[in-house]
Amino acid sequence: MLSEGFQGSWLLLALDWLIRLVALCWIPVRTSPGAARSWLLLVGFVPLLGLPLYLLLGHPWLSARRVRRQAQVSRRIRRQQALQHALRWRPEEGTAAAEIAALVERQGDFMPTHGNAVQLLDDYDGALRRLLDDIDGASQRVHLLYYLMFDDAVGEAVVAALERASARGVRCRLLLDAVGAKRGLRCYRRRLQAAGVEVQAMLPGGLRWRRSGRMDLRNHRKMAMIDGCIGHVGSQNLADARFIAGFPNRELVARVHGPVVAHLEAVFASDWYVETGQALEVLDTPPAVADVATQLLPSGPAYPFANARDAVNALIHLARRELVLVTPYFVPDEATLAALRIAALSGVDVQLILSASNNQRLTWWAQQAYYISCMPSTCAWMARSRWSARSTWISARSRSTPRSACWSTTPGCCSACARSRPTISPMPTR
Questions:
Q1: What is the pLDDT of residues 368-405, one digit of tens each?
Q2: Which domain does 35 fall in, by range?
Q3: Taking Cα atoms as reference points, which of 287, 268, 304, 288 lies closest to residue 410?
Q4: How many Cβ atoms from other residues are within 10 Å of residue 15's Cβ?
């Protein structure tokens, strides 16, 4: 008995050190340096606990099939854009707009286009009414891609609008995250399919998790395309503004017309293809309707780079006069925190606008520590409101351009390098 216990102890000790050595060789090449240090410390102190946690949460992996399909889509987008020289917006050489546009195109595939119209909607109910009106006015097809859909009054209104559209002969497709929209899928999927609407869940779990990816990786896009000529993109889900008890939400939605709608359609088609393997038909690119230049930047683990983070950091570094950052969750990585500090110390007027309330308690506690780092060098202002500002956007003003702004919406960042500013709806009185 003593000999068996002694041998078991040696085996456990050998396994303990084997895990440490494997982690030392494996984790640093699959994880960012800052995160790798934390994971190596955990695995070093508690190997039998640290390794399973790292395998579960440490690396944002997707299935090889999804990564391969995304690469195929990116190549196709680049080939098609090469034939559309007339739509390309060409910022003045040497300006901040030229630098950020080149970065965004290399990361997310989409070139900047001119001839767009952008209307910013910050009234929650008003944005929903515009979406429903656009669906009711559709004559060819409706594509909706959303992270969250609830079985509430908003979900019921959207489903009814899709049923009406399908009854008119409009081709309707609904793409929903399998976890975020679980309630909506459970309540409405069969009803919509019976009405002729194609419904697809993204990144399913259960026994199919190995064909999708890590369970906490979700598709957070929120966008709608109507007849290939009207687009809605922003932070608003298909749910009531008060779907989180005690935290009513304020959102920002961009309603767009023009060539950029074709890029939104391409993002939808990309996600549909990655999920189903089905290539959707492509409509003609809408003509120019105004003079706003826009550029779309999708992001996600299927791309080789951290698209949204890199673009935001680039905008921060390009700011020369003013930088306004609005976000409900402020837990930046080291690169972003350093960029904010450098901008402020360089004389840029840096403003952080954060929600006074936060439904993520752990995130709320974590972001308190960053106030200490930012306060000595930046102007941080927390919105004291009973509303939770859920939208995330950044505006960077440089000396060389009138305004270079990036609205970080769900697909990534919509960079508006505009000679004329987009229309902004008036702020409603609460």
A1: 777 766 655 555 454 444 555 566 777 776 654 444 44
A2: 2-58
A3: 268
A4: 12
CB 111, CB 81: distance < 8 Å: yes
Would you state the structure tokens that stand for residue 2, as one six-digit string? 């003593």
Please name the amino acid found at residue 51.
Answer: L
Cβ neighbors of 315 (< 8 A, separation 6 or more) are 100, 323, 394, 396, 404, 406
Q: Which amino acid is at 40?
A: L
Three-class SS of 275-299: HHCCCCCCCCCCCCCCCEEEEEEEC
CB contact at 8 A, 310 and 384: no
Is 255 within the bounds of a domain? Answer: yes
pLDDT tens-digit map of 169-222? 999 999 999 999 999 999 999 999 999 999 999 988 655 555 666 677 889 999
Q: Is 147 helix (H, G, I), strand (E, B) or coil?
A: coil
| H or E stretch covering 144 | strand 141-146
By DSSP bridging, strand 171-177 and strand 322-327 are: unpaired
Residue that terminates a domain, selected from 267, 291, 315: 291
181 is written with which tokens? 């929209």
Across the strands, what pairs with 406? 394, 415
* Chain centroid to CA 315: 17
Q: What is the dihedral of CA 363, 218, 111, 107, to 10 degrees?
A: 70
SS3 of 58, please?
A: helix
Which contiguous run of DSSP H or E holds residue 194? helix 182-194
Secondary structure (DSSP) of 222-235: EEEEETTTEEEEES
Number of domains in the chain: 3
